[in-house]
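[agent] plan:
  1. take the single chain provided in the ticket
  2. run structure prediction with default settings
  3. attach structure tokens to the ticket
  4. add a short note for the reviewer (M.T.)
[agent] executing step 1
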Amino acid sequence: MPDSVFIAGPATWNTIVVLDRLPEPVPHMQFAEETWTTVGGTSAGKALSLTGLGRATQLHALAGRDAEGERVRAALHAAGVQVHWGEGVTERHLNLMTRAGERVSLYLSSPAATAGEDDAWVRVRMREAGAIVLDLAAEPLRLLPMARETGVPIWVDVHDYDGDAEFHRPFLAAADAVFCNADRLPDPVAFLRARIAAGASLAVCTLGAEGAVAVDAEGVEHRVAAVPVEVIDTNGAGDAFLAGVLDARLDGAGVGAALEAGARTAAAVLRSRHLHPLLDAVVDAGE
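[agent] step 2 finished; step 3 output follows
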């Protein structure tokens, strides 16, 4: 379907630990203010938000048959997300968070790329889609050449990219639309303009409570304010923002209107302690 979205990337099982401050790099003891387990992963977050918006979405993710992998599979199925599961190690994270949204993510396990057993299926789904989202992981990196061959627009999210990390470069080179946050970029707008000059048609940087800034294919700068909301958890907000923008663009919205849609979608996620409110009853009921 030309208005559908194909996503490849992480769906994980996460332990969230909320602290009054991020740990200093010295031996010490801290007490957690709150802790819970939930589905994580940037691709799962995008797929949940797009599904919640009613957008036909196909997620390709890897997970094992261990207890954590089965929890991820069951939760996304119950939330209505269409997932094609490849076999691999279940990705697990320990996220140390503060109420202000600061985060340190510790990767406890992460799957390697597959040998391409499902590539025929993946190629068909990519060609049918109106957009392909490839997130930062080994399997999407392997799939980049295939995605480029389809001619379907590729959207990438490089998160807290510092402007130099080697792993991100192939994703940036393939991207029609680039998303990032401002955490490690000294000049976000300059980075966005550089991506447009390199061939992207849209470049967007989220700015936390200050909203987001974008540069379009004509070099016009757009800004949107964040939607005021009582924040429960910031995990998944950036993924929801991209999903809202993508959904609106597929419906023909201009950049400004699409950014507003992204801000609304992100606000809905910030009200949940999970990646999306679709998981509230699903995961909490299983605890």
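[agent] step 4 note for reviewer: Residues 10 and 41 are 5 Å apart (CA to CA).
[agent] ticket updated
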